[in-house]
Amino acid sequence: MHWLEKWLIPPRCVITGLPTLERDLSLELVNDWPVPQAVCPQCCEPSALGEVCGACLTQPPAFDRTQVGFYFDKELVDLIHGLKYQNHIAYAQLLGELLAERVSLEGVEALVAVPLFAKRFRDRGYNQAELIAESVAKSLQLPLIKQATQRVKEAPSQTHLSAEQRRKNLKQAFAIHAEKLAGLSHIALIDDVVTTGATMQSLADEIKQQTDVQVVEAWAVAKTK
Ligand SMILES: [Zn+2]
Question: What residue segments make up the domains of the chain, in order of their start?
């Protein structure tokens, strides 16, 4: 923020309304959000020593590494719901900055946001994952590749489905525009929340099959426990 702007409109926490030092979110809140620890680096599920888990060893997912900022808990739930369902578009910048601070970049050449189905995009007017990805790209100075993927099958609300049902639902859910990813070998997919990883699996699988990309990471602001 410009110093004059800062002086005229001091930053305030969007949750507590209290003045903050820099960002529009109190640091005390963020410091209290649970973060994944002792998890499998590939899928982010609990793994006692933080090593690759048995499930990933026996049936490796199409994504090579998962990096998430926090568990989906506390005020972060309000921020993500505000962004997705209440048009609080400004929250995307905050969420992207928080994610950018928590990921390790090693080798990542570009970012790709998880796409929304066209009708849902029209209803909402924006893709929250892409808005978050724009903020991450800006913070990390990485290119964000747009229109590289498309959701061609509507994802029904998956909240009450089992992992197996989700996987079935997601079969051929994405179209890949390979030319947009030409020359890239290591990318990170960005979403707001990962639940079972089924969406990331499906998208990473299609990308690896249809492009020269060899390493796909799954990044999300939050992961459900
Ligand atoms: Zn794993």
Answer: 11-223
Which residues are CB-contacts of 73 (< 8 A; sequence separation ≥ 6)? 33, 34, 222, 225
| Cα-to-centroid distance, 66 and ligand 1 (Å) | 9
Does 2 score more than 70 pLDDT?
A: no
Q: Which of 84, 95, 107, 102 has its CA nearest to residue 132?
A: 95
Q: Ligand 1 centroid to 225 CA: how many Å?
A: 14
Which pTM value belongs to this model? 0.91
Residue carrying structure tokens 């998956």: 158
**What pLDDT, in 10s, does the model give residues 172-204?**
789 999 999 999 999 999 999 999 899 999 999
Q: What is the mean pLDDT of residues 22-38?
A: 92
Q: Which CATH architecture has domain 11-223?
A: 3-Layer(aba) Sandwich (3.40)
Cα(45) to centroid(ligand 1), Å: 6
- CA of 134 from ligand 1 middle (Å) equals 28
Distance 21 CA to ligand 1 centre (A): 38
- Residues near 3 by beta carbon (within 8 Å), at least 6 away in sequence: none
